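name: query_chain
kind: protein
chains: 1
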Amino acid sequence: MEIIEKIKRSIPDAEFGAMLLTSPVNRFFATGFASSAGALFITADDAWFFTDSRYIEAAEAAIPNARVRLVTKDETYAKQIGGLLSGSGIETIGFEDGHVTYAGYLEWDEKLPAKLKPARQYMDDLRAVKSNDDLEKMKKAQRIAEKSFGELLPSINKNITEKQLATSLINLMAKNGADDKSFDPIIVSGVKSSMPHGVPGEKTVSDGFLTIDFGAKLDGWCSDTTRTLCVGAPSGEMVKIYDTVLAAQEAGIKAARAGVRGCDVDAAARAVIEQAGYGEYFGHGFGHGLGLEVHEPPNASQIYEKPLPAGAVISAEPGIYLPGKFGVRIEDVIFIKEDGCENITNLPKGLIVL
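structure:
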């Protein structure tokens, strides 16, 4: 079912009489049309997309299931939406409280003849469940990222910098068909691998662990993968920690299915790391939601007590980080199903020694 139609059908049972979407990501989610400016207004009976002259012609061609209207200095967003509300009987409007600034809220609240009601959770719940078409797009993005990673491997040596590797990986993803990167790649080596979100620097690749965290974006959908390699022979402790992280990831993946709380998936992985004596060195959650944004609900963390819905896509990325020494993270992406989950990442997970 189209997202706009789904929202229209749900409004009679919702806590609001209309929905106002202003964030680029949710406008794209509902319409499939990307623009830097616009507003989507949906009632139980109809939908309108408002935008300025830069996008009006493209929007008219791309959004068949909403009435497209031009915004000008005189015919503003608020004036036109206010006109639609006049005489409609609509008293409350759902808005994206997680995206709208306080100043933006005050402006809408002042100019619209209806009360704004927080509806972030409503949109989060809609976006948490991916359709088969969404999943296929995410798999395509994943395949591009994986192909690019494979092509990057031969160029890794101790004469190349972390920043050069990051640039090369971005270029490879673009060459292989990505529209963009999902995020700036995290490529850190040696002692810097102990920093989960370390920034690639001008230093050349060091002996020891090399963390490569990367993702491609295609048709708006993100991928996300991490592999930890080793430059030079690993020590016994390094092998032990790598194997522990891998075992923790496998335990979390095994626990993941629809209806299981995110915190319980995290706990299954965390128990493996704690039993190995490294519990204090696993500071982040097991995984996060992935979709049109690289971090979005639902999550699999210690504080996420909601059940994972069937159709959710989350990362599976436990890690152990020993400050000043090294760190290991292994990340796949899994699709939550009623009877378990599907790992949509195809890269091998054995430790690669360069």
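note: The CA atoms of residues 288 and 299 lie 4 Å apart.
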